[in-house]
Specification:
Helices cover about 50% and strands about 15% of the residues. By secondary structure, the protein is an alpha+beta fold. Among the domains are: about 100 residues, Distorted Sandwich (Calcium-transporting ATPase, cytoplasmic transduction domain A), CATH 2.70.150; about 140 residues, HAD superfamily/HAD-like (Rossmann fold), CATH 3.40.50; about 120 residues, Calcium-transporting ATPase, cytoplasmic domain N, CATH 3.40.1110.10. Strands 10-22-21-20-11-18-19 form a seven-stranded mixed beta sheet, sandwiched between helices. Strands 2-1-3-9-4-7 form a six-stranded antiparallel beta sheet, with no helix packed on it. The chain has a six-stranded antiparallel beta sheet with strand order 12-17-16-15-14-13. Helix 17 links the parallel strand 20 and strand 21. The longest helix has about 35 residues.
Length: about 650
């Protein structure tokens, strides 16, 4: 997928998602009151007209004067709709709601039902105003959630910091961020440490403390002291720009439900129109006391009810709500279609390192033989201090006591470990091969250890060993049990790590099926084998880089900790902005909640419309019931959809 550059100053909701007549109305926040003026004028004139009719206050209010009064009341709300209907008609799109409402209300005028004609158009117009406001608010929530674009960057040039637009900063330049300011561009921290609020990017409100040379991302807020950052990406390529672009474009990827409803509405509306024509004329052949005016009135009710507003507005609004709720929780869906897809997943395949484990070596256990643990570790740390290996770094994290031991004459034994002198004693640190080559006997218990193990001998006597392992993430175990509870029947772990280690992690997490020692193409083959069974709907969770082929091949690709990863953004369908696997469960729950609300709205809209259609055909419903079936149901559906923005998922 080619990345689309986005001008964030001009970030606006996708027009395709709006009701098709948005082009004809301005519902922007800056002129919100102005948009209601026509409706207010029509409402006041309608109320005055009804009052005069009811109380017979003005005897002259009849005939042409009455017609003119109601016509003037109709024009402010009716003219824009008639205009849009005419435009659609010229384009060949006959069965639009504008055309239907125009015919229904003009028809009401023709049969002398002037107040009802004005009232129907007035309530329709007011309903549309509220609907558009709700849609724009939902889109605004999505935008506001991530629109943390800083307005300026303090860049170091010519010996001083100057304020410029973030777009004007080049890669490699140094910027300064004061306390409370947003980091304007991605970069590397030059200061010794920083405390950052990354909530806009990850959904996590807990401050993130980082050290010198760590990566920082645009949109994070500096919480403590003034910090300096070296810029590594232009603004267009920064993490926040990609996220904004992703969320903006997500609304354009419609779900199958949305597409089906839109197509259905185009078929269903003309059917109702022809039924309305039938309601007008067919009774002439079967009813003895046929009155054209009565049957035309019933047909007009049919036309009002047939408008599919509740469906074509509330369903996209439901998906907007789901996308916004997910973003707020640090989960980015590339489109509404993936909200639906998450609810259908029954098979989950996951990587190990960086997904359920932290991807960082830690000391798991220490075993000594006739040595005090702290003294033993001081000998070992003195040796490992000379190495840059990840295992050496893990050993140097040992915090007990203060290591004053120094190693000298340290040499590396290729493929085996280290050899050197510490406090006049010869120390060997490495694997079993190193011990065997120096005729040092190693206890049998080390054979059963599947994790990485560091063996230590001091003065040619085995002194002990340290087990090094990749730590499980805090929420890993709970995630697996939660996945089963939300309907994931099969969980499989695939890893490039040693099979023995993979099997141990799988056992700890109670994952029955696991395979280790796999190359990326091996993982791809495993997923493709699962997909051959049409009953399997497969999601894959990986880091978005090495696992890109599998992410692309699965039904739903989920990138774990995708912040700042181009490959994750490009390849995955769902991006978890934090390193918490439990967010996958939350993504499934959000998808399920969204789907429930969408189907509630579909059933609500169709159910009430069918009831009022039947009542209207039987002469038991008036225009007022028709207005409720259209505008009223749309507003109820919108209120239901807005609930998503308030929901909480554990």
């Amino acid at each position: 997928m080619k990345k689309k550059k986005v001008n964030l100053r001009d970030l606006k909701p996708n027009s395709e998602e709006q009701h098709s007549h948005d082009d004809g109305h301005d519902h922007g926040d800056g002129s919100a009151f102005k948009t209601y003026i026509p409706a207010i004028i029509s409402f006041v004139m309608l109320m005055v007209g009804i009052a005069v009719d009811y109380f017979d206050a003005i005897p002259q209010f009849e005939g042409l004067i009455r017609v003119v009064w109601y016509t003037l009341a109709y024009i402010p709300v009716g003219f824009p709709v008639i205009k849009e209907g005419w435009k659609s008609l010229i384009k060949g799109d006959v069965f639009t709601e504008f055309f239907l409402m125009s015919i229904a209300t003009i028809g009401a005028f023709i049969i002398g039902e002037y107040p009802e004609g004005v009232a129907v158009m007035l309530f329709y117009a007011v309903g549309e105003l509220f609907q558009n406001a709700a849609v724009n608010r939902a889109k605004g929530n999505i935008k506001a959630l991530l629109d943390v674009r800083p307005k300026e960057a303090n860049v170091f040039r010519d010996g001083d910091y100057i304020s410029v637009s973030p777009e004007a900063v080049n890669i490699g330049e140094k910027i300064q961020i004061r306390v409370g300011e947003k980091i304007p561009l991605d970069g590397i921290l030059l200061s010794e440490k920083a405390s950052l609020n990354t909530a806009a990017l990850t959904g996590e409100s807990k401050p993130d403390s980082i050290q010198k040379d760590a990566k920082v991302y645009a949109g994070s807020i500096n919480l403590e002291s003034v910090v300096e950052v070296e810029v590594t990406n232009t603004f267009e390529d920064s993490s926040i720009a990609r996220i904004l672009d992703l969320v903006q474009n997500a609304t354009a990827r419609k779900s199958k439900t949305e597409l089906f409803i839109r197509q259905f509405a185009r078929i269903y509306t003309p059917i109702v129109v022809f039924l309305a024509i039938g309601v007008t004329f067919i009774p002439y052949f079967f009813v003895d006391d046929y009155v054209f005016r009565d049957w035309l009135y019933r047909a007009l009710i049919f036309l009002v009810i047939s408008c599919p507003c509740a469906l074509v507005i509330s369903i996209p609004l439901g998906y907007f709500g789901g996308l916004g709720a997910a973003s707020k929780n640090g989960i980015l869906f590339k489109g509404a279609s993936f909200l639906d897809a998450m609810t259908k997943i029954n098979t989950l395949v996951m990587d190990k390192t960086g997904t359920v484990t932290k991807g960082v070596f830690k000391i798991k256990s220490i075993k000594t033989f006739d040595w005090d643990e702290e003294e033993f570790m001081n000998y070992l740390m003195a040796m490992e201090e000379q190495s840059t290996h990840p295992i050496a770094k893990a050993i140097m994290e040992y915090q007990k006591g203060t290591n004053n031991f120094e190693a000298n004459k340290v040499s590396e034994v290729a493929g085996k470990g280290l050899k050197g002198m510490v406090k006049g004693k010869e120390v060997l640190v490495g694997n079993k091969a190193l011990m065997v080559s120096n005729n040092i006997e190693v206890p049998n218990e080390t054979e059963s250890i599947v994790e990485s193990i560091v063996l230590v001998a001091i003065d040619n006597v085995f002194a002990g060993y340290v087990v090094i392992a990749d730590e499980l993430k805090e929420d890993a175990k709970e995630t697996i049990s939660s996945l089963h509870r939300v309907g994931i029947k099969k969980i499989m772990m695939l890893s490039g790590d040693k099979d023995s280690i993979t099997q141990q992690v799988a056992k700890d997490l109670k994952i029955e099926n696991a395979k280790g020692g796999l190359l990326p193409e091996d993982k791809l083959n495993e997923v493709e084998a699962l997909k051959k069974n049409p009953q399997n709907k497969v999601a894959f969770i990986g880091d978005g880089i090495n696992d890109a082929p599998v992410l692309a091949a699965s039904d739903v690709g989920i990138a774990m900790g995708g912040l700042g990863s181009d490959v994750a953004i490009e390849t995955a369908d769902v991006i978890i902005q934090t390193d918490q696997p439990s967010k996958v469960v939350r993504a499934i729950k959000i998808g399920s909640s969204t789907r429930k609300i969408v189907w509630q709205n579909i059933i609500l809209a169709f159910g009430i419309k069918v009831i009022v259609l039947i009542l209207g055909a039987g002469g038991l419903a008036t225009m007022w019931e028709a207005v409720f079936a259209d505008v009223g149901v749309a507003l109820l559906a919108i209120l239901n959809a807005v609930r998503l923005q308030k929901m909480k998922w554990s």
